[in-house]
């Protein structure tokens, strides 16, 4: 195996704490916030569900976010090399190294399908701008979405464009690629979101949306709702997948990780709540259904835009918002792969981004086809467990329900139990009683919480 070099040289680190916050928040804020959170909130009892979700962010999300970033900064290399050098220097079992491989492979796989969906955002910016929703009925708009999914060439084209954008950003490196992109895109995302919320306040049923999202009705909260909240807390913060380990490897030593992790979690949660306040008022104002699942932002919302004054402009703004959120998440998924190629294969940054991106693009064709030509192909369908799952469903299940939670569990256990304690307090950035309480949560509550979700998802 190749000797790897930690890249903790000043020129190759995030230039500030803010730069890291924007990049990590960019990774966290994605489809999970803009589509999934509002929808599952409505389905599982509104305010009561939001409360449980916040508790889960605190006991699972933030601890793993802190631990993963801390491990990444300590190792200062790709997830694979970081875990190799840490297991050596800590004198722990070599089995922990699987955390690194899990990260590189899971982020590779998740990007292969995320990019296809990112392509939908590109298509919908065009549809909104062309006025295709104006005055259209539910059948027409549903048909537009159906026709997109049925056309492999169109999906492939936009998947390719999306991947090209991601490769061009990541290929330029941490400072002139990722940092410059998030410095522009994250403020833009925030502005677009605020514009959408104001639009919704003035032209939608804002009060009803606020009730729908925040009125706590504990009788509507089920066991399943609690588990969904737990699972989403992990997904929404991008933990357990090597992304934060890779981003943490470029983090200067002086940055306080605990405080930074809190900021990222607050930003991610705020965007999720604001997205709900932008979407639901429009849905309610037009007498539409809030709980339509995958169709919510690609069918229900366009229907609302098609009936409203300013619908063309705000439709474009909404899908631009979706695209920005998707791009800043996608670049984070390519980073572990690129870092691994650079260090282990000795390929320069740009070529690593190109080669990694090309391989991911190729695997993404499986997802493209799973919506049309291969829609009846269920690769592991002979196992009852995977019955009816297309290539896309399988990849999503593998990453979101297996690799991410197990990665998060292993990270909590490694940081909480296996790593030596000296220097840990300083690395994390907590003191005294707060540090001791944090360690109790990381060692017991976090693993227990993840295990419960994991076993539930499996059954
Ligand atoms: N956190 C993203 C979201 O909420 O949409 C999803 C995600 C990003 C998952 C990056 C995994 C990842 F590596
Ligand atoms: Na998120």
From TrEMBL:
It is a multi-pass membrane protein. Coiled coil: none annotated. The chain crosses the membrane at residues 18-35, 47-67, 104-125, 155-174, 186-206, 226-248, 260-284, 304-331, 352-374, 394-419, 440-458. Keywords: Membrane, Symport, Transmembrane, Transmembrane helix, Transport. It comes from the Bacteria. PROSITE patterns: NA_NEUROTRAN_SYMP_1 (PS00610), NA_NEUROTRAN_SYMP_3 (PS50267). One of its GO terms (cellular component) is membrane. The keyword Secreted does not apply. The keyword Iron does not apply. One of its GO terms (molecular function) is symporter activity. Pfam families: SNF. It is found in: Membrane. Belongs to the sodium:neurotransmitter symporter (SNF) (TC 2.A.22) family. This is Transporter. It comes from Marinobacter pelagius.
